[in-house]
Every structure is written in structure tokens, then in C-alpha cells.
Write a structure and sequence with these properties.
The chain has 2 domains: 4-144, 3-Layer(aba) Sandwich (Rossmann fold), CATH 3.40.50.720; 153-184, no CATH class. The chain is built from 7 helices and 8 strands. It has helices spanning 4-13, 26-37, 50-58, 84-92, 114-120, 131-144, 162-165, and strands spanning 18-23, 42-46, 62-64, 74-80, 94-102, 123-126, 155-158, 173-176. The strands form 2 sheets. The protein has a 6-stranded parallel sheet with strand order 3-2-1-4-5-6, sandwiched between helices. It has a two-stranded parallel ribbon with strand order 7-8. The protein is globular and about 60 Å long. The two termini are 22 Å apart.
């Protein structure tokens, strides 16, 4: 639910916005669920993983394995791949004055279409979500039942099994441990 801050302010400013989500897993899936719950007119979820795309479809999103830029296609783009080439596709797919939130960890250099971004007035924010500022709204959204974050959780795994389970590439594992005085 921490991702509500990546999406909610934009859908508040632009009700019924068209949203592009280019992702490789749980961040994009949560974003897909939240965008739908907050009234996005259209959500396109792009991910090479067919299992992720099937889950995104349950949230009402259209899906694709990959895309080329869709000129003036979306009001908001969420990029969560950590790949600059995918970030470039996201910003090139925005309407003039569109907004792109990049939640990907970008560790490799790459090029962005800066002139095109400038001419279109694109706003790009590369950052982790400001969780603290959005906790009350995120908790209210979770409590409303309009989102289903549990659907993204792929496995619940015992804490002691973490070293063996983590390298297995689960979509969104949740690790739990027994704590004294807390019921499992």
C-alpha cells in the first residue's frame, strides 16, 4: 500500500486518467490494483511475465508483454523495472504535461529522450514513494476493500527458511516469524 503515493495524487489531480505501468513484479501489480481502485479510465500493464499479466487482468488492466512508445497515450506512467530503456518508453508514451513516476532502481547508465520530454513538458520523478506522508490515505484505501494487495503475495514463508527461499525468485514473498506474545 505504500505505492498509493505514486498514484493517488495524480488521479486526484486528473480523475479518470489513462495509466501506463511498465513493471517486472510486485510494485507494478500493486500500482495496477490501486490505479483501478482510484478510478483510472484505462490501465495498460506491461510485463514480460505471463503470470504477472494474468493477475493484472484480474484488476481490469489491459496487458502486453512489451510495447513501443505510444505517442500521447497516457496521462501517467509508472516505471518499475530499473531499466532506462523502459523508462524511456514510459516518458515517450505520455501526453503533453504528463507525469512519470519511476520506482525502479536504476544502477546502469542509459539515455532518455530529453528534447522530446522538454517539448512535451513531461515531468519525471525518480524516487521511492514518500510513505510517511501517505500512510493515512493508504490505510483508508486498504480498509475500504477497494484494493486486494493480498492477491500479489505469492508465498508466505517461515522466517527461518528465508536464506533458501529468497533466491528462488518468488513474485512477492512475505516472511513471517513467531514472536513471543504475538499469535501467528
Amino acid at each position: 500500500m505504500i505505492l498509493a503515493g505514486l498514484i493517488a495524487p495524480h488521479l486526484t489531480a486528473r480523475p479518470a486518467a489513462k495509466v501506463l505501468i511498465i513493471a517486472r513484479g510486485s510494485i507494478g501489480l500493486y500500482a495496477c490494483d490501486i490505479a483501478r481502485a482510484l478510478g483510472a479510465a484505462d490501465v495498460l500493464y506491461v510485463d514480460p511475465n505471463p503470470e504477472h499479466r494474468r493477475l493484472a487482468e484480474t484488476y481490469g488492466a489491459r496487458t502486453a508483454e512489451a510495447i513501443d512508445p505510444i505517442h500521447h497515450g497516457f496521462d501517467l506512467a509508472i516505471e518499475a523495472t530499473g531499466r532506462v530503456d523502459q523508462l524511456a518508453i514510459a516518458v515517450q508514451s505520455l501526453v503533453p504535461e504528463g507525469f512519470c513516476e519511476s520506482a525502479g532502481n536504476h544502477f546502469r547508465p542509459g539515455e532518455l529522450p530529453l528534447l522530446g520530454m522538454y517539448l512535451s513538458g513531461v515531468t519525471l520523478r525518480i524516487a521511492r514513494d514518500n510513505v510517511r506522508a501517505h500512510i493515512p490515505d493508504a490505510l483508508a484505501l486498504a480498509a475500504s476493500g477497494r484494493v486486494n494487495p493480498a492477491a500479489v503475495v505469492s508465498d508466505v514463508i517461515a522466517w527461518d527458511d528465508l536464506p533458501d527461499a529468497l533466491p528462488q525468485g518468488h513474485t512477492k514473498p512475505v516472511f513471517v516469524r513467531d514472536l513471543p506474545g504475538i499469535a501467528p
